[in-house]
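Consider the tokenized backbone below.
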């Protein structure tokens, strides 16, 4: 089994979460934070504004990327963000097998390319010994 969590992440060393939300015209997801907010021991060093895919849980990667595209068109970013902001598509992959492999379809690559940002992939194995 493989599941995806996909988000569009915007980081800023100078803007607060509320300012990014105002510029972007939408609220950030609940797992966003402002620079200086307290984490486990130290405050966050940058603001991370995040919007998550709204595709249903069994959706494939292309469906998650299409969800981002429909809710947040790429051309909106360049109009409102200062150059100091860093933008990426964050892909989390949860899997329950010994090895992991997945395909970035041509359409998925086109969607990611439309944003003109980097892609960050994190893989999270689940407990595949406990079936």
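A designed sequence for it:
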């Amino acid at each position: 089994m493989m599941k995806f969590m996909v988000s569009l992440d915007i980081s800023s060393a100078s803007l607060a979460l509320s300012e990014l939300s105002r510029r972007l015209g939408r609220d950030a997801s609940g797992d966003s934070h402002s620079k200086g907010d307290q984490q486990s021991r130290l405050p966050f060093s940058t603001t991370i504004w995040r919007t998550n895919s709204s595709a249903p849980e069994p959706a494939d990667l292309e469906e998650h990327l299409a969800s981002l595209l429909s809710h947040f068109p790429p051309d909106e970013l360049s109009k409102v963000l200062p150059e100091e902001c860093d933008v990426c598509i964050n892909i989390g992959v949860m899997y329950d097998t010994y090895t992991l492999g997945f395909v970035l379809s041509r359409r998925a690559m086109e969607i990611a390319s439309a944003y003109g940002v980097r892609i960050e992939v994190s893989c999270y194995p689940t407990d595949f010994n406990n079936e």
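The mean pLDDT is 89.
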